[in-house]
Amino acid sequence: MSQNPVMKWWGGFSEKHPSAAKWMREGGLFIIFSYVVTFLKYIMLQFLPAMFTGYADIGWGWPSVDVSLFGIDFVWNAIGYSVEQGGMAYLLAYLISSFLGECVNFPLQRNFTFRSHGKLGPQIAGYFLAWVVITIIVNSINCVWVAVASQLVPDFIYNIGTTVLNGGVSMVVFFVVNKIIFADAQPEGAK
Predict the structure, then answer these.
(1) Is the pTM of this model over 0.85?
(2) How remote is the C-alpha of 32 from its chain's centroid?
(3) Are 98 and 135 a contacting pair, CB within 8 Å?
(4) Is 131 helix (H, G, I), strand (E, B) or coil?
(5) Is 25 within a domain?
(6) What is the domain range of residue 119?
């Protein structure tokens, strides 16, 4: 049976350059899984805010700094949203979609992308800590985006921007974090 030319090339490349092949495989799978999870988060952001409409008129945020950008006044928060930005309803939707997305992403990245067999407890703790830090960083940026974009475009458009921003920053940081927390305990080839 003849081998597919692409698979034949990949096999030769992998033998000659095992480290580069591993990075390419991990990077490719990481991106594919991350895009699938990002799409899942986007879908959730389409309906979750409506589930929390009772909280939409309750604003909560920290550190609550008044900002004016492009003639649009809003309150900037590292975490949370003012009433004008969706309040607790949008915050809950954002946190739930992000957290559930990462609950899907973690086992995919751990088991398929990085093929990790490390201790699950420390890996979950490291991943959760990274999620918290990334969420605060992304929300700091997203707070500006939502305030400005919500005044200029329909919500389904700014939700795409929110998802791409969250997904893009998260992907870059999580790839580095995953390389650390899912690192093999033994060098490749060791038994």
Answers:
(1) no
(2) 13
(3) yes
(4) helix
(5) no
(6) 33-181
